[in-house]
Amino acid sequence: MPVFKKLSREQVGELKPKRDQPKDDILAPYIAEVEKIEPGEGIEIDLTPEDNPRAVKRRLTIAAKSLGKQLKYRDGSENKIVAEILAKNSSK
Questions:
Q1: Which among 31, 41, 56, 57 counts the fewest CB atoms within 10 Å?
Q2: CA torsion sign, 17 to 20 to 24 to 26?
Q3: Binning pLDDT at 50, 70 and 90, where does residue 1 land?
Q4: Residue 21's pLDDT is what?
Q5: Residues 7, 10, 12, 15: what is their CA dihedral angle, to the nearest 10 degrees?
Q6: What is the pLDDT of residues 21-76, one digit of tens each?
Q7: CATH class label, 19-86
Q8: Cβ neighbour number for residue 20 with a 10 Å cutoff
Q9: Are 34 and 67 spatial neighbours (Cβ–Cβ below 8 Å)?
Q10: What is the pLDDT of residue 92?
Q11: d(CA 77, CA 25)
Q12: Contacts for 60 with CB less than 8 Å, ≥ 6 apart
């Protein structure tokens, strides 16, 4: 049988995702790194235990799109994300 424990409002507040941080602040380091890379080049990201690989990939993809670039993810590992920068998106 599971053990239930009541949490105070303060404890619940500590568990909530930190969405107070503006989106631009979160994406700024990703945008800065993608800006340095030209089409045909790649980027390798070493993940720390605190990093969520899906969130990092999502932020990297959003940063690339904001700069008009596309990414193609390559085989990395559990602790690495590897992506190639493709040619800039064509305007529609």
A1: 41
A2: negative
A3: confident
A4: 56
A5: -130
A6: 556 688 999 999 999 999 999 999 999 999 999 999 999 999 999 999 999 999 87
A7: alpha beta
A8: 6
A9: yes
A10: 46
A11: 27
A12: 30, 34, 43, 45, 71, 81, 83
Whether the predicted pLDDT of 82 surpasses 90? yes
Q: Where are the domains of the chain?
A: 19-86
Residue 42 tokens, joined? 């790649």
Rounded CA separation 49/42 (Å):
23
Which of 85, 86, 88, 79 is CA-nearest to residue 43? Answer: 85
Going 42 to 45 to 51 to 52, the CA torsion angle's sign is positive
| pLDDT the model gives residue 54 | 92
**Token pair of 84 as six digits:** 């190639």
Which are the contacts of 87, defined by CB distance < 8 A and separation ≥ 6?
A: 39, 70
- Alpha carbons 28 and 1: distance in angstroms, whole number: 46
